[in-house]
Purine permease
Amino acid sequence: MADESTGEIDLEYERDDRPPWPKSILLGLQHVAVMIVPSTAVAYIVAGAVGLGAADTAYIVQMVLLFSGLATIVQAYTVGPVGARLPIVMGTSFTFVGAATSIGASYGLAAVFGSILVTGFLVEGLVGWQFKRIKPFFPPLVTGLVVVIIGLYLVPVGMDYVAGGVGAENYGSLTNLGLASLVLGVAVLLNLFTTGVTRLLSVLFAIVLGYAVAVAAGLVSFAPVTGASWFAVPRPGAFGFAFEPVPIVTFAFLFLVSAMETVGDMSSITAAEGRTPSHEEFRGGLFTDGLLSSLGSLAGAFPVTSFSQNAGIVNFTGVMSRHVVGVGGVILAVLGLSPKVGALVTTIPSAVFGGAVLLMVGMVAASGARLIFLHTELDRRNMVIMAVSLGLGLGVATRPEALAGLPTAAETFFGQPVILTALSALLLNTFVPGEQSPLFDVEGDETPAESMGLSASED
């Protein structure tokens, strides 16, 4: 049960707790199971769009897993100022799919990796370095809205997986819907009606059961496993580097989105403790995003960022141990060094993961709503900010074609639901007087108009 005064939930394991090794491994596997297909799907989508062969595609998938694991370990344990010492699982975000696909097709993958190399740490490193100065501009109202939109705009992605994956011949079939429903139903039942290890590992148990049913039904092909090698190492500069102005500016915009997502995900995780992240946590988390993305590009990995689904797992299970996530990071890194093991994991049907992903993104949105409701008075001013921010964010998420008349760069920037929601909330919260505004000191019963010296009768 949650503490109603602070929003803190009952944690089975707190941030620095170390569960027994068998339980830690299973809990770490649960985190890996939820994010591995969505993360590697980015590599498959981009590789297919730019016409890479099977060997190069497998290599990019391998690098995504390896650097996701390394970044997760750094987030859990830190290296100097890099890392947040929080249970943050890292992976490749769908935020970068559109740009990587279009730029890869037009300029080549060398331009993609050159842009990531330049903008990764430059953008997120600068944001992290100066976050103490800008933190007052990101109160619970703003960060909570970012968390909510992250969860909500990922719901269609979860539904695509439920239906079998975008482009699947059997998209929306009863088989896919049945598998996803099985996973979703089992995870919810185990979490709500059991205790102990079955509740903590409810998502993992549900995925394993769904996979077993899929194998028994003949829906799984093990051909990718037999064709994969047992061990492979990174090849620096595998696809070369090129530095083009338009791709660099585009990825700079997208890393701003990634920074907002990380701020939101970190707020979602610490909301389980009834608090917002500290300056050091924000700074270290953003440093990890940027630095590991730049380093990963040297070997051919796409940008890594915090994974919202796994922030949902923390709130869903009550397991906040960073050591559990550290174990998950080691597992991801091992998978990244063994293409054969990674290939085995990717044989799990999309529909099986869909049931779990849909649950997790819903939990992310719910945790964002809790962050807002616990720390924000729902007066007219704040309700208007919420309405505008969520309306614009969901608007471009559901109807991106509405921005087709904008210049390409503007369409790329404003077509991102997270950044449009964040910018709307940031600007309105900053310039409309209220208790959470960093520019105005407002008395408890004072309206925005009164705080600006306007007649109350005109408000």
Observations:
- The first strand starts at residue 90 and ends at 92.
